[in-house]
Amino acid sequence: MLGRIVNRQRVDVWTDAGHGDADDRLVAAARLGDPEAFAVIYQRYKLDVWHLAWFTLRDHHDAEDVTQDTFLKAHRALGQYHRDGSLRAWLLTICRNACRDRLRAAQRHDLVALDEELAALAAGGEGAGGADRERHLDFHRALAALPEDEREAFLLVDVLGCHSDEAARIAGVRAPSTLRSRLARARRALGPAVMEPEHPGVGTEVWGLFHSPFLSAMVVCEHAARDEVLDRRQALLASLAARSGAGRAAGAVEADLVAFLDALDRRIPGDRPVLAVVDERPPGAAPWLAGHPRWRMQRAPTHASWIGEVDAVLTRSAPCTDQERNRLRAVLQADAAFVWTGRA
Amino acid sequence: MRLRRHRGHYWQAVLDGDRSPQAAAHLERCGACRTRVEAIGEVTRAARAQAPPLPPGLDA
Q1: Do strands A274-278 and A295-299 pair parallel, antiparallel, or not at all (unpaired)?
Q2: How far apart are CA B40 and CA B23, in angstroms?
Q3: CB of A260 less than 8 A from some CB of B
Q4: CA-based nearest residue to B47, from A169, A177, A186, A66
Q5: For an interface test with A, which of B1, B4, B36 has the most A Cβ atoms less than 10 Å from its Cβ?
Q6: Who among A6, A159, A283 is closest to B44 (CB)?
Q7: Do A342 and A238 touch, CB atoms closer than 8 A?
Q8: Which residue in B has a C-alpha nearest to residue A140's C-alpha?
């Protein structure tokens, strides 16, 4: 039946860029029994539906079945289509529900299919070159590791190009902000899989933290002795506990930052290179850096937040309990100033 | 020194399709937003590159 519906050439009268009114005219014509109108709908949206089905199911056979089912169901349910949403969103919603039904019915776990795919890729099944294949694998692993709702948000918005409001409707999420939060988490998780590593070197230790509502900096230095690391960790935790929460005016932040750098420069032994990881590169710090050649300043990696980078370095150098980490994040996410220079 | 609040960035809005002059101007002067947009663009291109072509049975 589907073949009969869609196996037609595009019809000129319907080939204007298909959105909004044009889609509504197509649906109206299809409702009146015009098979050519539905053929144009199919041509217009088959790739979107196929991609959503394939990325969700990761199985060619199942994705092909679901794509066909989606258009068959849509054809039968044309009377239920309302103009308040886009035709594409309506079709993708049908597809998404069909995918979920299929996964539920088969009690299939995505990772099983993915493992097979990864094995094929690792064996060179798709002919990808060495570095590209590694990157491809990293990306697939990162995508598979995402929670289902975050993966769905990423696929709908970034792969299929839906607006986040439209994606929220397709995913059955009442608040678009919820969808956007899921999307933000997915983007942060997937970024490292395709980006060059930008982390400070392994073995770096945190010597100081500077946080304000306008600018944040973490100072790290390599090759600290173990006892020094533990002492500083204790000092940091004590400092968090004693935090007053006092804020500073925006105009004072640059001077505060330079004072912070000065204090650490005096504390850190003179032969050690020092790195300041910042969330914004403050132009006013350039003269200070020019006068202190062992210091470098770099922005936090593009795929991570500054707080995430602090977390990562602390985890590597001086692991915190969940409670300690939560306290640290709460302090660093607050709008009040917090400055720690290695002493409680 | 021009100071910005952490929450005053536009990269999420730009990725969500904001093409307003305000967003464009911010992207022009904010390296952090620009690099984030480029990074996510890279992720998206990687994903799209892996999408298989339509199988012959559906390519009617």
Answers
A1: parallel
A2: 17
A3: no
A4: A186
A5: B1
A6: A159
A7: no
A8: B47
Determine what percent of chain B falls in helix, strand and coil, rounding each to the nearest 5: 60, 0, 40
Residues contacting residue A293 through CB under 8 Å, at least 6 positions apart = none
Mean pLDDT of the region A257-272:
85
Contacts for A8 with CB less than 8 Å, ≥ 6 apart: A35, A36, A39, B60
CA angle, A242 then A246 then A252, to 5°: 130
- For A120-145, the pLDDT digits (tens) are 544 544 444 455 556 666 677 777 77
Give the list of residues 6+ apart from residue A216 with CB closer than 8 angstroms, or none.
Answer: A209, A210, A278, A279, A280, A306, A307, A332, B6
3-state helix, strand, coil in chain A (%, to 5): 60, 10, 30
How does DSSP assign A115-132, residue by residue? HHHHHHHHTTTT---HHH
* pLDDT on residue A93: 94
Rg (CA), chain A: 27
Residue A302 carries which DSSP code? Answer: T
Give the C-alpha distances (Å, rounded to integers) separating A69 from A2, A48, A75, A95, A106. Answer: 9, 14, 10, 8, 16
Tokens 């010597």, located at residue: A207
For residues A133, A138, A144, A146, the Cα torsion angle rounded to the nearest 10 degrees is: -150
Rounded to 10°, the helix B31-50/A130-145 angle is 100
Model pTM? Answer: 0.53
The predicted complex's ipTM stands at: 0.71
A274 backbone dihedrals φ, ψ, rounded to 5°: -125, 140
* Torsion angles phi and psi, residue B53, rounded to 5: -70, 165
